[in-house]
Amino acid sequence: MTHKKKSKDSFTAAALALLFFLGAVVCAPAQVAIAAGEAGEADTLKAAQTELTEIVRKVEPSVVGIVGKLSRVSKSYYDASDNIILGSGIVYRQNGYIITNQHVVEECEKLFVILSNKRVYEAKVVGLDAASDLALIKIDKGLLTPVTFADSARVEVGASVITIGTPVEFDLQNSVGLGIISGINRGNTGFSEYQFLQTDAVANPGNSGGPLMDMDGRVLGIIEGGYTSFQGITFCIPSQTILYVIPQLLRFGRVLRPDLGATLVQGLMADYGLPSGQGLFFTDILEGGPCAEAGIDEDDVLLSLNGVDLNTYTAYSEELKKYLPGDSAELEVLRGGVRRTVSVLFDERP
Predict the structure, then answer these.
(1) Strand stretches in the chain, DSSP E
(2) What's the distance, CA 170 to chain centroid?
(3) 30 vs 115, more confident
(4) Is 3 considered catalytic here?
(5) String of b and e for 202-217 (b: at least 16 CB within 10 Å)?
(6) How far is CA 249 from each of CA 36, 111, 327, rounded to the nearest angstrom?
(7) Has 103 been annotated as catalytic?
């Protein structure tokens, strides 16, 4: 019995030794693979971090802080306050032209721009545009580093983006945020009549006018604002709107927009952001204006402009970017269930 037991114990020990040996042989490559995977992930994260740092370093000189002193006639002026506003901006031209939001600068009697190197320059307003909430200002300083623009029409939901701005107080100048594109072609926001990009990158008071950038450091948009009661919903003016408005502000001091001589109102479905096929309702027809001359009456419905269906006021505003005062267009109009096509010659919007 003793011998048999000893033989069994010896076999068991040998078997265990063999299993441990085989386990070591089998497991060793897996452990190496795991270690290699961890190293690969670390290298990838390190490369991504380096890339992000380089993007910020490259773009930072093109981002400015803006400080304004509110005029006494401003609706936001309070005697008990310092009446100082903070905002952000981006360099448009190397000879001192800077883009920001209209709401940042419109009510200021004094404006100052602070560059990334902390140098301060007084600024003057070149042009304001309420419809887009964009402004062009200028400082007497050359050799600035202008931003480059990306095509906002090509960006996709989920794309990574970077923000830079001066939130809350000036000690936080050029604060950097990271997020994604949460939505595109956002309308009905109440901020302007045009479409916005939506991002989850946090924006606070003072970020307005700062850039929304892609991972190549190109400007996709300018931060407009967000819903104060909610987090992670920030709207940005797309580069396509910026490049429609700003060159006109630089050249004319205003934007030359076409006008139909009527007010257009979207339907209730569109007001709630629901799919709508109602078109746009004509109201306030201006005597002698394009619509009046074309025989359009109040409560007629605009269905399309040169073949493009229009069901929201935002879509209408976006479509008008293609035209200038004096251009002609074909309108499809609905009256009493009957469709007809009329020709109009655009006036200039007041």
Answers:
(1) 63-70, 84-91, 97-101, 108-114, 120-129, 134-139, 160-165, 175-186, 196-199, 211-213, 219-226, 234-238, 258-259, 263-266, 280-283, 301-305, 308-309, 328-335, 338-345, 347-348
(2) 22
(3) 115
(4) no
(5) bbbebbbbbbbbbeeb
(6) 56, 18, 20
(7) yes
- Among residues 62, 88, 103, 132, which one is catalytic? 103
- In whole angstroms, what is the distance from residue 69 CA to residue 90 CA? 20
Q: How many residues does the chain have?
A: 350
Q: pLDDT tens digit string along 118-155?
A: 999 999 999 999 999 999 999 999 999 999 999 999 99
* DSSP summary character for residue 312: S
How many whole angstroms separate alpha carbon 199 and alpha carbon 202? 8
CATH numbers and ranges of domains, the chain: 154-167+175-238 (2.40.10.10), 258-348 (2.30.42.10)
Q: What is the DSSP string of 164-191?
A: EE--SSGGGTTEEEEEEEEEEEE---SS
Catalytic residue among 208, 239, 304, 317: 208
- Does the active-site annotation cover 284? no
* φ, ψ (nearest 5 deg) of residue 54: -65, -40
